[in-house]
Fold:
Amino acid sequence: MFSISVEVCCLLLVALLWGGTNPFLKRGTEGIEKVRSRNFVIQLFAEMKFLFLNYKYLVPFVLNQSGSVIYYFTLASTDLSLAVLLSNSLTFLFTLLTGKFLGEDIGGKQAMIGMLLIIVGVSLCVASTVSMET
Structure:
């Protein structure tokens, strides 16, 4: 049971890193549409320069990618159906919560009901996985 709880904590951290950085990544890309160049290759490099010299994008990007590294190592010891379910559904939840914290419109009551259903579903899946382990 200890290994399941460690795996679940790692997947929660992954979801937090992915979901918590998504709104910041969105904000960090503001202004990229103003980058213009004469051809595709120069445009690509100009956009990359804009992003990687912009700390408002770079810091969330590095945190987001650290979540990917944790996810990769967690997959070695976690049931794939549990890993995908936890990380992806909770990423959505953390994205909504972070967006709400930053003042974004997340959709009112329907979004709150959706978040509640995600929490209930994930709890049921984790509980069934834990009961199968014992």
Q: What stands out?
A: Residues 2-133 form one domain. The chain has a mean pLDDT of 88. The chain has one domain: 2-133.
